[in-house]
Amino acid sequence: MLKKLGNIVREKNMSSLMTNVLIAALGLFSFMLLTRQLSKELFGDWVLYVTLATFVDLLRFGLTQTSSVRLLSGAKQEDYKKLMGSSFKINLKLLGIITLVCWSLYALVIAGDFQINYGYFLFLTWYPILAFTNLSWNNAMALFQAKQDFKGMMYVRLSNIGLFVVFLVFNHWLLHWGILEILWVHLVVNVVSSVWCIVKKWDGCLYLKHAEKKTTKELINFGKYSMGTLVGSSLLKSADTFIIGMSPILGSAGIAMYAIPLKLTDLLGIPLRSFTMTAYPRMSKKCIDGDMQGVRKTFYAYSGAITLLFVPVAIVCFILAEELVLFLGGNEYIEVLPQLTLIFRIFTLYTLLLPIDRFTGVLLDSINKPRLNLNKVIIMTLANIVVDLIAVFVFESLALVAVGTVIFTLIGIFLGFYYLRREIQIQSKRIFPEGILFFKSLNTYLAP
Hints:
85% helix, cell membrane, membrane
């Protein structure tokens, strides 16, 4: 019994899940500390800065990360240095372009004396530096995922967020530093993680001389679609924050309020992120090997099983929504507790739809149809932006912004199945039967 339990703990799905759970727990703790160290408006500015940074990070690494994982999953040892060196070179050039754009816009804002949200100002000022400090450790994530080395991934992420949480604890009790000092420390912990990855040769920095045009072109040809998909996927959530930040009525306080139920929803997505990280390389390998029946079966099993797992969790979260929101946000948000509770309950419906939507996108990438996945995400993003604009500027309602999330997810599921039925004859009716079989045949899917 103990041996079997040990095997399950060491299995890749569980390793991925435990890694994401630990990182998310620390992320949640840092979120709670920040809500209590910053005023509602300044916390909203911080959320806007981080959301913008995360969005542009996806743009940068989206060009290479998904394609690197796919190619590294079946790569020979001699191709490893070419792939990692080429990937790093691409991201280095993107860093230069983004730095030029951000600081040019900063100069324009200063010269024109434009009034913008402070969160946008922080981003234009500091993001290029953040982008440099997190370049190496972010580039290393593709290698960890391709090798299914979730232990290594966990240690690198812990060196980042773990140190930041330690600082926030000291800041809460002793230092009482403000938003700028917190931002500076955030930059420093990113430097620590990146230096570690450079020294261990995980990031590709020391393999720049092995970069070649053929490999670079291969990464970009696939990556241009996956980048669009990742950026679009990020916009599906971050557009809410960007548009709320533009509102003269809701502004930074509205961002802070909306961030609390959104953070709780992100926690519900931890198992989904963990299993997609293991499912994607597996489905990609089966596709490369020509085993399309295996690809379909893996899709059915994972999407069905995760949806079934989410049902009891969503029910409990719906019932305890008020308590969870208050626990995360603290007493400063008691006055708006009914509104935030309603938003979180809308999000619980979204979490039930998310697994099938997400896995249709992962499957399209796995069968080398990233353009179709990009089309799907673009349509979803446009739908979300339209609903957000109406919700924020016409009705001035954060709850309607959350409703838009449910709407675009339903659209994504419909489009995903439309494309997959056309390409590989996916049958939606097999999802839940195969999902049940997933639990009955764990040894088949939980392979170390």
